[in-house]
TrEMBL record:
It comes from the Bacteria. GO terms for molecular function: ATP binding; phosphoprotein phosphatase activity; phosphorelay sensor kinase activity. The gene is phoR_1. It is found in: Cell membrane. The chain holds residues 332 to 595 of 595 of the full protein. Residues 41-263 form the Histidine kinase domain. This is histidine kinase.
C-alpha cells in the first residue's frame, strides 16, 4: 500500500486539513516485475542462438576447419540457429501484440469443417515425415463466430505440439463437438489429442507460462520457442474461451479449447 498526503488550503490561504490517498500499488508493482522478468527471459532466449551463430562463424572464419564435412555441419548449425532466432522474434512480436491489445478481434462466421480440413492439409506434410496418422472429426453443419486468423494460429500451435511431442508412428486427432452449458448457451469443444510422451502432473499448471518447457533439450531440438502455448492461451481468452489439458506420461495428451459459438 502507498500513502500520499496533500495539504488543503481555503481561499484565504488558511490550512483546512490534509487529503490522504491510500493506493494499493501491489498490482502495479507485480505488473512491473512481470515485465522486467519477461525482458530478462527474452534477452536470455535471444542470446543463446546468437552466441551459437557467432561462435561457429568465428571458428569457420579463423580457417581452422579444413575438412568440408565439418565446415558444412557448422554452416548447418548457423542456419538452424538463425531459423530459431526468426521463430523466437516472430513469437515474441505476436505475444506482445496480443498482450498489449494491439490486435483487435475480427469476428466472422467460420465453417468449421472446411476450416479444419484446410488446417489438417497444412499439417499433413509435417505429420507424414514422422509417419503420424493425422485425423479430424468435425460435424458438417457447424459454424462459429471467430477471428479466423487467430483461430488458425490456436489450432496450428496445438497440432504442431501434438506432432512434435509424439513418437514416430503415433496418432494425432482433431475433434470438434457442439455442446450446451448449464445455462443453455451454445459452445464448441475442440479437442487436440495425441498418443505422445505426455506431460508430468506437476508441470501441467505451468505449461501455459511464457518460456516454460518441461524438457528444454527436447523442446530446442524440436524447434520450440516455449511461447506457443502462452500465445494459444491468450488467443483463446480473446475469444472469451477457456483452455485445459489432460495428460498421462507415456500415454498421451489432450488439449481442450472451449469457445462460445457466438460472440456478443
Ligand atoms: P515449445 O515451443 O517448447 O513447444 P509451448 O509453449 O508450445 O513451447 O509448450 C510448452 C511445453 O509444454 C513444451 O516445451 C512441452 O514440454 C510441453 N508440451 C506442449 N504440448 C505438448 C504435447 N502435446 N505433449 C507433450 N508435451 C507438450
Amino acid at each position: 500500500l502507498q500513502l500520499d498526503g496533500v495539504p488543503m488550503f481555503g481561499e484565504d490561504g488558511s490550512f483546512k486539513g490534509m487529503l490522504f490517498l491510500l493506493q494499493n500499488i501491489t498490482a502495479i508493482r507485480r505488473l512491473e516485475n512481470m515485465r522486467s522478468e519477461f525482458v530478462a527471459n527474452v534477452s536470455h532466449e535471444l542470446k543463446t542462438p546468437v552466441a551459437a551463430v557467432k561462435g561457429f562463424a568465428e571458428t569457420l572464419l579463423g580457417g581452422g576447419v579444413k575438412d568440408e564435412e565439418t565446415a558444412r555441419s557448422f554452416l548447418q548449425i548457423i542456419y538452424d540457429e538463425s531459423e530459431r532466432l526468426n521463430r523466437l522474434i516472430s513469437d515474441i512480436l505476436d505475444l506482445s501484440k496480443i498482450e498489449s491489445r494491439r490486435s483487435p478481434m475480427d469476428y466472422a462466421p467460420v465453417h468449421m469443417a472446411t476450416f479444419c480440413a484446410s488446417i489438417l492439409d497444412t499439417m499433413a506434410t509435417v505429420a507424414e515425415k514422422k509417419r503420424i496418422a493425422l485425423h479430424g472429426d468435425i460435424p458438417e453443419e457447424l459454424f462459429i463466430e471467430a477471428d479466423e486468423d487467430k483461430l488458425r494460429q490456436i489450432l496450428i500451435n496445438l497440432l504442431s505440439n501434438a506432432i512434435s511431442y509424439t513418437q514416430d508412428g503415433g496418432k494425432v486427432e482433431l475433434n470438434v463437438r457442439e455442446i450446451q452449458d448449464a445455462e443453455g448457451t451454445e459452445k464448441i469443444l475442440i479437442h487436440v489429442t495425441d498418443t505422445g510422451i505426455g506431460i508430468p502432473k506437476k508441470d501441467q499448471p505451468r505449461i501455459f507460462e511464457r518460456f516454460y518447457r518441461v524438457d528444454k533439450a527436447r523442446s530446442r531440438s524440436s524447434g520450440g520457442t516455449g511461447l506457443g502455448l502462452s500465445i494459444v492461451k491468450h488467443l483463446v481468452e480473446l475469444h472469451h474461451g477457456e483452455i485445459s489439458v489432460e495428460s498421462e506420461l507415456g500415454i498421451g495428451t489432450t488439449f481442450t479449447v472451449e469457445l462460445p459459438m457466438l460472440q456478443d
